Give the backbone structure.
Amino acid sequence: MPELPEIVCRAREMNEELAGRRIRAVAVKQPKCLNVPVAEFARGLSGARVRGVTNRGKWLFVDTSSGHLLLNLGMGGEILLVPSDDLPEVWRVRLDLDRKQSLSVNFWWFGYAHYIAAGRLDEHSMPAALGPNVLDVSLAEFRRLLRGRRGAVKPFLLDQSNLAGIGNAYIHDILFRARLHPLEPLTSLSPKAVRRLHGAIAKELRRSIAKGGAFYEVDLHGHPGGFRETDLLVGYREGKPCPACGTPVVKIKTGSTASFLCPRCQPLSG
DNA sequence: ATAAGTGTTGCGCA
DNA sequence: CTGCGCAACACTTA
């Protein structure tokens, strides 16, 4: 469930709290989420100093003096900065820092914690496959990305190799704001519709970032975000009236994901 | 009490 | 290129 807004907020907090600090030791409870053996992971990060934390799409990049730690929370999880002697009950990966604090990383279903040696970032396949950060894409670049592409609008937006950052929670309201059906073919999007879509993406994601991300995710200190259920327009509001026209919101299957939409405001033009 | 739904990603296959 | 189904593990809701 963490998507771009939550990850942007987490990157900001981590950058503020962790930059300049020393990683004294590393512990791993779920080796499956690593890209390298535990020993190599621990050897790479132990003793390193954190330089800064950024994000690309839903991936967090922790840059240190001896390589990179890439985190992806998958379908939800928490990154908590806690006293080393008061750890949460469950965690998958733990970084013990200076000042008797630890960074506890947990995810509910799956997630990734990858270590990449300094200077080897380009060789790593996962971030290399990411498209540009969705909030950095200008309208002109957005048009260029869409040019010649086939398929429907929703799968295109969810594909992280096209644009990095949009997930299945925010996409409902993005498409509603753009007045587009999730299954609208890309080839039938008018220039106006493309402009609306580009604007809707920025508006929706920035709105949540400004509120600290979604209420169901927490910050480094365990406090939930301020983007609440009542901030949703049609997403997860099956049967409730569309905020624009009052028509009941419907939930439909779109491939392997569900979509919420207003059948009147978001007709399929084909 | 059992089962389904839910988010993300990468993979293999048509 | 595109679309599909699948697998990974935990927790909530019908």
